[in-house]
Amino acid sequence: MQTHSSHPIRVLCSRISEQLEQSVTVQGWVHAIRNLGRLAFVHVRDRSGIVQCVLEGELAEMTLSLESVVSVTGLAVEASKAPGGLEIRASAIQCISAAAAPLPFEINKKTIGARLDTMLDNRVLSLRHPKVHATFHIQAALAGAFRDYLTERDFTQIFTPKIVASGTEGGSNLFPVDYFGRPAYLAQSPQFYKQMMVGAGYERVFEIAPVYRAEEHNTSRHLNEYVSLDVEMGFIRSEEELMDLEQDMLGYMLRKAGAECEAEFALLGVELPVPHDIPRIPVAEAQSILQRKYGKTSPKGDLDPEGERLICRYAAEQNKPAFVFITRYPREIRPMYAMPAPEDAALTASFDLIFNGLEITTGGQRIHDYDELTASIRGRGLLPEHFESYLDLFRYGMPPHGGFAIGLERLTSRLLGQPNVREASAFPRDRMRLTP
């Protein structure tokens, strides 16, 4: 019977230092080649890093192309001039899978010298670049920290449908689906379902899942499919409690991601912000600040992209990190379930969080009274019977509740200083892109 005992055990590049003066086998992609005739230096990259392999004699004459998958066996030794201070003196090399040449672009430089569209057209290749690779390690750490923080505070992770009968906000930005001959849509948000789970007695819930927006935008800040980090909790006193939670949670997420991805943040040259005492500015006051400080006129009851950038600049000038909560949005521009502000029913107990010039969060307290919610739906020109399964929840006792949602790609791109949110999506979906 054949066994695997004769096969060499693979060692990750990052663990070579533990195997000095021993024979090791590394497997990965050819990151760089420097050929000096009967001597060649081949850098092999795996998920953990890069190691230099020294090939001599016949081994050096082997034809290799960049990004080919190889297996190299040899003696691990210290080498002061090699990357990381060590190298493998190869005794054997195998090309497992040869890469086509030339590549669409080089990925062994500090940055990829290609347009973003070219990088996205060849996404699997661009994802191999160490800096791009680092982006998604960091993003995974952020999502994991989000889950850990909430789980530790007695929140339950939920999984809600992504094929729904109607939109959560009564809008038209929906992708239609033929559901066995009946009309259905891709979910814009898990909003209704996370409220249902609060009302079902779970009280505190969260979800990490894709959402879909059929918006015609084609900008650096919009995706038509993105990952939403959703939170909903019952028995809140006001939306202030939600902002307290998010501020503390973001601090935890950034600290944990920073510890887990120290090398990745260093590679990208990113200094982590520390969100604390995030200012909470009513939108009307924010508009007044923008007009007074920058001569900026804003749309009614809201901030446009330039306004978001400027209000973060203002916050930074006040010796605060580039986080700003904008509060008290008018009811007319908020969803039907937004709770009216206690001091003025024309405003809502809602907020956005702006981070480094871009809105990454929308949240607030929700209406929990059946009659008030029904009236709000009618006030939007919508029919309550179209939301019957949602409204039924409120017939049977619903606590005061609220929540928020963070766009994971926006959070990642703002944290890493990326100019286009597509850079923070492994396989972005926008108005023009459906592949790869």
UniProtKB/TrEMBL annotation:
Which residues of this protein are annotated with the site description Important for tRNA non-discrimination?
Answer: 83
**Reactions performed catalytically:** tRNA(Asx) + L-aspartate + ATP = L-aspartyl-tRNA(Asx) + AMP + diphosphate
GO biological process, alphabetically ordered: aspartyl-tRNA aminoacylation
Q: Where is this region: Aspartate?
A: 191-194
Q: Binding of L-aspartate: at which residues?
A: 169, 213, 362, 366
GO MF term set: aspartate-tRNA ligase activity; aspartate-tRNA(Asn) ligase activity; ATP binding; catalytic activity, acting on a protein; RNA binding; transferase activity
Q: Which Pfam families is this protein grouped with?
A: tRNA-synt_2, tRNA_anti-codon
**Which EC number(s) does UniProt give?**
6.1.1.23
Highest taxon of the source? Bacteria
Give residues annotated as binding ATP.
Answer: 213-215, 221-223, 359, 407-410
Q: Which UniProt keywords apply?
A: Aminoacyl-tRNA synthetase, ATP-binding, Cytoplasm, Ligase, Nucleotide-binding, Protein biosynthesis
Q: Where in the cell is it found?
A: Cytoplasm
GO CC terms in record: aminoacyl-tRNA synthetase multienzyme complex; cytosol
* Record InterPro entries: Aa-tRNA-synt_II, aa-tRNA-synth_II, aa-tRNA-synth_II/BPL/LPL, Asp-tRNA_synthase_2, Asp/Asn-tRNA-synth_IIb, NA-bd_OB-fold, NA-bd_OB_tRNA
**Residue ranges annotated for the Aminoacyl-transfer RNA synthetases class-II family profile domain, each copy included:** 136-436
Q: How does it assemble?
A: Homodimer.
Family stated for the protein in its record: Belongs to the class-II aminoacyl-tRNA synthetase family. Type 2 subfamily.
Per its database record, what is this protein's job?
Aspartyl-tRNA synthetase with relaxed tRNA specificity since it is able to aspartylate not only its cognate tRNA(Asp) but also tRNA(Asn). Reaction proceeds in two steps: L-aspartate is first activated by ATP to form Asp-AMP and then transferred to the acceptor end of tRNA(Asp/Asn).
What is the name listed in the Swiss-Prot or TrEMBL entry for this protein? Answer: Aspartate--tRNA(Asp/Asn) ligase
